[in-house]
Amino acid sequence: MSTVYNDFVIRFANVNGSGSASANGMFAKALFRMGIPVATRNIFPSNIQGLPTWFEVRVNERGYLGRREGGVDVMVAMNAETYAEDVASVTPGGYLFYDNSKPLAPSLRRSDIHEIGIPFSNLLLTEYTDIKQRGLFKNITYLGALAELLNIEFEVITGMVSAQYKGKDALIRPNINALEIGRNYARDYLGGPLKFQVRRVDLNGDKIMVDGNTAAALGSLYGGATVCAWYPITPSTSVAEAFERYAGQMRVDKETGQNKFAIIQSEDELAAIGIVIGAGWNGARSFTATSGPGISLMSEFLGLAYFAEIPAVIWDIQRAGPSTGMPTRTQQADLIGSAYASHGDTRHVLLFPSTPRECFDFGADALDLADRLQTPILVMSDLELGMNDNMSEPFAWDDSRMYDRGKVLDAEALEGVNRFGRYLDVDGDGIGYRTYPGTHPSKGAFFTRGTSRDEFAAYTESPDAYVRNMDRLVKKWETAATLVPKAEIHDRGQKAGIIYYGTSALPMQEALDLLGAEGIHLDQMRIRAFPFGAEVRSFIESHDVLFVVDQNRDGQMRQLLVNELGVDPARLVSIRYYGGLSISADHIQGKVSEHYTTRKLARLTEVKS
Amino acid sequence: MTFVAKPKVHHPRLPLNELGLTRRDYEGSVSTLCAGCGHDSVSAAIVQACAELSLPPHRFSKISGIGCSSKTPSYFLNRSHGFNSVHGRMPSVATGANMANQDLYCIGVSGDGDSASIGLGQFAHIVRRRINMLYIVDNNGTYGLTKGQFSATNDKGSTSKKGKPNLYESIDLVGLALQLGASFVARSFSGDKKQLVPLIKAGLMHKGFAFIDVISPCVAFNNHQGSTKSYDYVRGHIESVTMADFIAPQQEITADYEPGSTEDVAMPDGSRMRLRKLDDSYDPRDRFAALAHVLERQAAGEVVTGLLYVDPDSTDCHEIMNTIQKPLNTLVENDLCPGNGALDRINASYR
Ligand SMILES: Cc1ncc(C[n+]2csc(CCOP(=O)(O)OP(=O)(O)O)c2C)c(N)n1
Ligand code: SF4
Ligand SMILES: [Mg+2]
What we know:
Chain A is of the alpha/beta class. Chain A has four domains: 194 residues, Pyruvate-ferredoxin oxidoreductase, PFOR, domain III (Pyruvate-ferredoxin Oxidoreductase, domain 3, 3-Layer(aba) Sandwich); 184 residues, Rossmann fold, CATH 3.40.50; 73 residues, no CATH class; 111 residues, Rossmann fold (3-Layer(aba) Sandwich), CATH 3.40.50. Chain A has a seven-stranded mixed sheet with strand order 11-10-12-13-15-14-21, with helices on both faces. Chain B is globular and about 75 Å long. Chain B is of the alpha/beta class. Chain B has one domain: 3-Layer(aba) Sandwich (Rossmann fold). In chain B, helix 2 links the parallel strand 1 and strand 2. In chain B, the strands form three sheets. Chain B has an eight-stranded mixed sheet, sandwiched between helices. Chain B has a two-stranded antiparallel ribbon with strand order 5-6. Chain B has a two-stranded antiparallel sheet with strand order 10-11. At the A-B interface, strand 9, helix 7, strand 11, helix 9 and helix 10 of A face strand 1, strand 2, helix 3, helix 5 and helix 11 of B.
């Protein structure tokens, strides 16, 4: 048995609400601290307690962090209810950890995997009298056993326990005790180390491991958001919660103890976006965070904000379709609904972050763009990025950066204006000058409506005035295409290219390497915003075949490209995954390869020199 | 239809207020509502109240939903910004505007359709949040702008212009506001300027959420025999609890009751309305009594008007949330951005 270092997938099957999250998180963090790249994924039900939940960690030295298909190498099966399913998901030759306090039903046994039974319940029976404690410490105990068998540095874990319970010292000892019970049992009763081993490397540099929602909240805070209105919905809730937590630490006035922010948990998403728009209209930077159903409810307001030209930032942490259940799975299925949300001729700016660092950056950039363009900016994250701890470049802020508040006339500037026209295109970029309410005693006030106005914001139902205004909004849209984040392009002059966005970036390097090994070499473009910049068009024009990767059924990014750039649909081959897990490298490789085979496209058998 | 600016000719005899401004400086553009619409009288009352209080006419935010009533913010206070937003959603927009700048006076104007039907949820929640604003509902018991459908404030048994009776119970926003804990609740009649203007003044000066339900007849669709919100009907059934005279906030708001006397009030259409003043047993500081009184009079087929409830020790949302006094929209990088240094600690916590 040859040892495999730092390359395996481990999955923990638990019962929701059993306190497993913290032990599982410590497992991943320990490897991360040992310098090994890891990716974590939560798969959880719409339920608070009792239903199955899984936590998966992919460990990979090459930094392949997408979801891996084809089963797991190590399964920690702690949920009787899903046991059969969990046993079945282990790869041949893999390992199954289970609680053998009770005998295992013969039907559940497999001869092609290693069963590692540990009598967790019995072990803890004597140590902890309280049933609840026993349940909690079970998680810590399997962590101790795993540390021994996978060769995780024990001090890294104990260090984490001490840090986690700092100030609650009474909890440190029992936790370490539980870790030791697991470790000692594994050492004393279980044979040698597993095939899969970890070892310290130095591949993580100064990276951090954080969820995208926390990053979004911090970016919004750094970007100067003062008003946050929201309504709870998984997987977006933690954006507002993180904003509240950090604002409470970093946005309280030292002298008065008063808050330099306002957070309103509103009665629904209609109110959340209404509050954001009211605040934006009145000159405060404001944002909301929601998911698909919330976007649907916000749509009327989004149209108003587009027409009335009011800055607003909306984080859409995308999930699968309606109701409960699947919706707590990841997807990128709100693109079309968001890009054209609302009634009348509307088009909205979308940003597509793919790492926590990018969530942080876009958190602030979106506020600048909203002010500059005087329009809603929707940041399209998803559950995969938002709720899982992702490895990321650390957050950084340029202290010389000033907020771009866009075109706003203050009282002094108004003095110099002969006749203020809110919707006059003074600069030829389609963006007018705005004023905040209450700025000047006699100048700059205007009445905000959706439509029916002339350049001076005066009421009119004149068809000409309407058309002039709508055409100016088109011009503004063209300006937006020059201001939004540019696509990230790797062009080595191949004939074929792959276009992707958001969390499809996670498995991309692995997919490209797999394809490269079969003689398929693709140039890459990661789209970061809608409207598409000129670079997106020229990438498409300079390639014969283009694969467009979407995590939705209908190839929504592909539709946007066809629709907005007038690309011949035949040139855009759709690669789609919509099962609610994140897209894998295997899936991308399989579909691209299949296309090459069925179309008999040439592959390079040798590397071009 | 285009915007008509009112000619700016100053009437030499118009009195100047403390800011040296006349009532004209508080007006808006020319109304496009039907001649005789009660809503125009409400706008006029707002103009008069603000002028008489000598409030700076550019320091308001005027927010509305959608409806004839919601069009009215462009007919008063032209020097202030207005926002004709989304049907039923004025409360959320007003909340946001107030979050951004608590120094501005905020007037929200809505209709009974806007607030009691599509926007009932938002109405209830803004009351809870105690946003510091004056919230006026121009209540005509109908959907004016969509041409006369029944609204939820329409009384059961009242008939539409076509003679169809309303079969459903009505929603009384005053009762609701009292129940939800609004700290200032009043009802008035658009034709009763003498009562309405002081109420608007008191509402503007009130700290916290001030609500005035103004019965405001729709002359086009709900002013016929059979309607319970027509001028004639309301005139016959009105009972006024307080002739609230506005008194500056440092003094207590007292009610100018003259038990047993009657007062004739001029109506916009030239007729006069007789109001009966309440006896002085009515205490506008007793929320429970106010609610009971409203329900009782309602059962007797009467509309109670006046200052029904006021909490002199009221609070507002910013106080509840402990926000900084300085308007949030004036904060800059130095106030808001913790800087790169603070990220070291944050990054370290994620390693
Ligand atoms: C979402 C939506 N639904 C319907 C309408 C149509 N609509 C416009 S005004 C209105 C009713 C207004 O009634 P009310 O608030 O009582 O105002 P009034 O015109 O009576 O003053 C309706 C239903 C709309 N503008 N938006
Ligand atoms: S329809 Fe009724 S509510 Fe609308 S403007 Fe005319 S009178 Fe007023
Ligand atoms: Mg109405």
